[in-house]
Protein 1
Amino acid sequence: MITVKNLKKQFGDNVVLDGIDVHVDQGEVLAIIGPSGSGKSTFLRCLNLLEKPDEGLIQIADTKVDVKKMNAKEMHQLRQKTAMVFQHYNLFKNKTALENVTESLIIAKKMKRQEAEDIGKELLVKVGLKDQFYQYPVTLSGGQQQRVGIARALAVKPRAILFDEPTSALDPEWVSEVLQVIKDIAQLKTTMIIVTHEMQFAEEVADRVIFMADGSIVEQNNPKEMFNRPQSPRTQQFLNKIGTGELND
């Protein structure tokens, strides 16, 4: 489903991604963990071209681009393959929950409003918001706003969903409800890449876990091996600090 080769990105002299190679199968859930500043979120933003990488090949489904040579049409095609769930929701504050979900269907996919609203309502029910169709983001809890964001991502039927630390901005009381929604989506064999600092969640939901540090992939394995028998001293150090509550490494 997703193949990334030699993906590079730097800001000034700061190398953020140093030749990343990743392959994700259809229906696979990939979790990416690592310390702050390791390049995890930048990798996701480069994958859907919110950030333009400096170098590398990206293939998602049947669309393949060389980021150095890609044109506007190729960029648009690649962006259409994924949907992003952001750390800080990124909802339209002047639109209801339903309007936030249907906006891309009506504007980008030229869908009739009634059809878009039927899809939007169905998805909001799926994420547990059947009573919040017409509420604005300011009246919703953080957990509810993030679930609107997930419904919005599902609406466009992407080939893969990218989650950028979907619970990091939430109060602790709302974290479990959002994680449960993501687990439910994973059960549907949706291809997902999840950048997260929730280690237990990554262990439960992911088929594979990547540990990143300093712009590189240090180690990858199935969750059981990664969390119980990490091979790299760098991974061991990170997981030990997580275990003692030193989250920022």
Note: The CA atoms of residues 42 and 93 lie 25 Å apart.
Protein 2
Amino acid sequence: MTVAEPGSRADEALFRPVRAGNPFEETVERLLQAIKLGVVAPGERLPSERDLAARLNVSRVTLREAIRALTEAGYVESRRGRYGGTFVNEHLPKPRRVSAKQLSRELGAGVEDALVLRAALETGAAEAAAARELTEAEADHLRHCLAETSSASLGDYRRMDSRLHLAIAEVSGSPSLTSATADVRMRLNELLDAIPLLAVNLEHSNHQHEAIVEAILAGDPEAARSTMQEHLSGTAALLRGFLT
């Protein structure tokens, strides 16, 4: 049995208290963020019901309703017994099949807004991470996420790529930045899922990931920012190419 790592910055950022106005919808959104961005991986168990309800600041009834909705949608399953709990399914639902151009029409100006916001957040996160003296655990976490992304299958690549970018925000030391990065990545993921994974692009992307992580670990904020900016510019150009 594998349990999601407790106490990580992404864990804290995504399982933060929800707003009072729509607790059910926001609880579903937070749990989906944790699953789709790789914070809780397939086969891992979500934090306990008591812990999650307290951290999200929702009733256990609301949490159970949200978990039931995700169970019906195919994202999680509940297991009974001594080692029971709510587990992320090994095989997650496939993203809806829709063209990038159709999604672009649906999202309208929101696409450019999300791309600009992502560039501002993630270049800043890389720079801030490189400016900090990382703990050994933080450095190992970054290396681990990089290795998992580099070796990911095509089916897992988007999720592992999301997890690496979120890890960079985590080691910036700002939970608010981590939350914002998760939010904007969720806005863009449906678009990213709608464009093909090209082998040459993935190879280039992995080299850029390595350069970003190396700059962060070397404590070089300027290089971390510039390499992240180049990486995000390439992704944005690819997206715009498929959207036009």
Note: The first strand starts at residue 2 and ends at 3.
Protein 3
Amino acid sequence: MFVDRAKITIKSGKGGNGAVTFRREPFVPEGGPDGGDGGKGGDVIFMADASLRTLMDFRYKRKYEAENGQDGMKKKRFGKKGEDLIIKVPPGTVVIDEETGLVMKDLVKSGDHFVATRGGKGGKGNVNFKNSVRQAPNFAEAGGFSKERNVILELKLIADVGLIGFPNVGKSTILSVSTNSNPKIANYHFTTITPNLGVVSIFGDGFVMADIAGIIEGAHEGAGLGHEFLKHIERTKVLIHVVDVSGSEGRDPIEDFDKINNELRLYDEKLALKPQIVAANKMDMVDEEDPGYLAFKEYVESKGIKVFPVSAPIHVGIHELLAEAAAMLDKLALEQPEEEEYEFFDFEKDDVEEDFKEVYTSVADDGAYEVTGKQLRKIFDSTNFNDSGSLRYLYKYLEKKGALEQLKEMGLEEGDTVRIFDYEFEYFEEY
């Protein structure tokens, strides 16, 4: 099954907590702090891998998590760094942040990679908090938070040449006789519902050719599977427009030619400007001096596009058609490739959480006064509730951020319950 779009959730690893430990040695009754730092959480990395062709695996597994960092240990030993999670995708995959709709990375060729979410930093052990006044710190820093986000994976086939045209005009047959591909072929509309790839190996290094599924009128608006089909044309360098010139199904070749090009133009003007050659297929059913064929040939060539008469099943004209495609590719190789235009995700801005230091206060339905905040969460997780110095630091932080004043304005009185995350405290005034 060919799958070219998937949505998954990725989550980096949490940083390990710093350790609160003290030296315990014979004849050293009051050893100093020796708690080591926690390890950094693992990153989530996307990497393009040429051995993959579809996004099918992501239909069955939707959540991916990197490993958490290990907590620090005694004797100043650092916790182990969480293992990075490498998610492999086919070349041609665009990774999009669902929340913003912005492109995080376009993984064009095998080996391309990037870090999609970074793991949390490891927390500092208590050895880092020793100073001339505080000789035995009984607290350490909590590890940094993990980061979770939803991403959309969108695969656009990377092919040198794309076969386009209405359904049932012979694209799959041309692909099968030109390459090592074996697409399923039958005489009915929409035979090809997924793109097929093959390698044309008779010219030098060869080139990759894709049979883009049949396009119909209204494809640019999503009719049929329009958008799914059209997006695969975006990366092709040369288009072979296959047209049934026999009129075997009562179609007009000129109208078909114009309708397909109109759909390309309406979807994206750049598609209509791609180099194009026409394969006038099913010539075994029409004479080359037929007025209808000659009118079609004259019309297409008046637009500067070459026409090659072919009959795919009996291989007539195929070599000449492919030779022209190879020559056009060689010419394009000498030109500077045009990069696709995307509005890219801002990773620097993403790393700076603007509301990280904000503290929020509210009154819960049960009457408890609640305090939340991202930096508060980290300080709270670092607090040793059996250590007066550590508790005092938490209290002073809440006071400094104005949280206590806000709660009093909301009606907080002595004896009321203050809830900080999952913990509840009874409020008493300091005297």
Note: The mean pLDDT is 84.
